[in-house]
């Protein structure tokens, strides 16, 4: 009898000193934004103690209590709680996950003010990368300036940043790819102008990209398409120059220190192929003797000036083009020799065809 009482006493004492334990908690969860997740926590010997789900705060936010026992504290429709009494498991479900839901969650048994049993599970909510507004959009610099292109991105996990140029052109830093948030060009050249791509990638979805336009202002560069051209008198001839400049240059043709304007002797035309490329043509109409000589094509913008010279030289026969098919009978000048030969050849063919066939 005494032995039975002793066993009963010891058993009651052992039960009384048993403290709650967390036998199992969900491992780290990595899920995509917008999806759902279940966090499970199994607790033993917790009948007399509150079991809480808490979202751990950061340096700027406090811990957020979510549930106590089988009851939700947080009134949030995306959250639900289920208590499996058979396994003493508390199941927290979160739907339509947002980036802010990511973080560390605590399953905690509150024994006293100073005594708590805690287990943690980390929730990583993956989000595709997105370029932030504090990234560079467009820069306008002058030839030789230092250029700083910046690109920052959000997303989970943290995206990596890389740089490329349009058509995989070589970057000023060398190579076709540069990794890092900041791309520095110590001394930009006009060849460095164009579109740069900031690419953010974190393995989620296809990533994000921003096109950054680098505009380099530079003094004009003028090139004569044909520095020496030949034409006969009374025929037209085109003098051509190619101009590269940004901002676009003011272009003039000069002959004998006088600017040329459109009149019966000259016609100036310009064709812009891009913001920085312009082709200009001076047509000398029905050339007279005093129109042979050196013509200057001059281009000017706020960064400087450049010019090229085209020399118009007299030839004995017309040059085609632009003389093809053009005869100026009103000038009183005899037909060009090659035209006369063509007429004689045609007449000879006609005579031969008219001769009788001799059998």
Automatic annotation (TrEMBL):
Tell me where it mainly resides: membrane
In what residue span(s) does the Ig-like domain sit?
A: 20-118, 129-215, 220-311
* Record bears the keyword Membrane: yes
Q: Which InterPro entries match?
A: Ig-like_dom, Ig-like_dom_sf, Ig-like_fold, Ig_I-set, Ig_sub, Ig_sub2, Ig_V-set, Neural/epithelial_adhesion
SUPFAM superfamilies the record matches: Immunoglobulin
Which chain regions cross the lipid bilayer?
A: 335-352
Write the record's keywords in alphabetical order, separated by commas.
Cell membrane, Disulfide bond, Glycoprotein, Immunoglobulin domain, Membrane, Repeat, Signal, Transmembrane, Transmembrane helix
Q: Which GO terms describe its cellular component?
A: neuron projection; plasma membrane
- Which N-terminal residues, if any, form the signal peptide? 1-16
Q: Where in the cell is it found?
A: Cell membrane
Q: Which gene encodes it?
A: LOC108673398
Q: Which domain of life is it from?
A: Eukaryota
Question: Can you say what this protein is called?
Answer: Lachesin-like isoform X2
Q: What organism does the record attribute this protein to?
A: Hyalella azteca
The GO biological-process annotations, alphabetized, read as: cell-cell adhesion
């Amino acid at each position: 009898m005494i032995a039975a009482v002793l066993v009963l006493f010891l058993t009651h004492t052992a039960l009384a000193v048993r403290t709650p334990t967390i036998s199992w908690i969900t491992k780290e969860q990595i899920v995509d934004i917008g999806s759902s997740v279940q966090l499970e926590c199994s607790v033993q010997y917790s009948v007399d103690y509150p079991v809480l789900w808490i979202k751990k705060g950061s340096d700027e936010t406090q811990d957020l209590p979510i549930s106590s026992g089988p009851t939700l504290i947080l009134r949030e429709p995306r959250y639900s709680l289920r208590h499996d009494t058979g396994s003493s498991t508390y199941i927290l479900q979160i739907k339509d996950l947002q980036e802010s839901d990511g973080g560390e969650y605590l399953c905690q048994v509150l024994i006293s003010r100073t005594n708590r049993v805690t287990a943690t599970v980390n929730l990583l909510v993956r989000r595709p990368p997105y370029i932030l507004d504090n990234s560079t959009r467009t820069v306008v610099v002058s030839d030789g300036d230092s250029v700083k292109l910046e690109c920052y991105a959000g997303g989970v996990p943290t995206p990596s940043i890389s740089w490329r140029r349009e058509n995989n052109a070589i970057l000023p830093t060398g190579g076709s790819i540069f990794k890092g948030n900041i791309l520095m060009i110590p001394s930009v050249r006009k060849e460095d102008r164009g579109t740069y791509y900031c690419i953010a990638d974190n393995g989620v979805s296809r990533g994000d990209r921003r096109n950054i336009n680098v505009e380099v202002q530079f003094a004009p560069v003028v090139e004569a398409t044909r520095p020496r051209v030949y034409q006969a008198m009374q025929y037209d001839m085109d003098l051509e120059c190619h101009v590269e400049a940004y901002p676009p240059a003011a272009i003039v043709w000069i002959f004998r220190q006088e600017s040329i304007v459109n009149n019966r002797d000259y016609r100036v035309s310009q064709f812009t192929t891009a913001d920085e490329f312009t082709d200009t043509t001076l047509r000398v109409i029905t050339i007279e003797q005093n129109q042979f000589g050196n013509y200057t094509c001059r281009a000017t913008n706020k960064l400087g000036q450049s010019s090229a010279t085209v020399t118009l030289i007299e030839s004995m026969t017309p040059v085609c083009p632009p003389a093809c098919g053009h005869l100026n009978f009103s000038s009183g000048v005899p037909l060009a020799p090659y035209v006369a030969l063509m007429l004689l050849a045609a007449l000879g063919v006609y005579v031969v065809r008219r001769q009788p066939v001799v059998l």
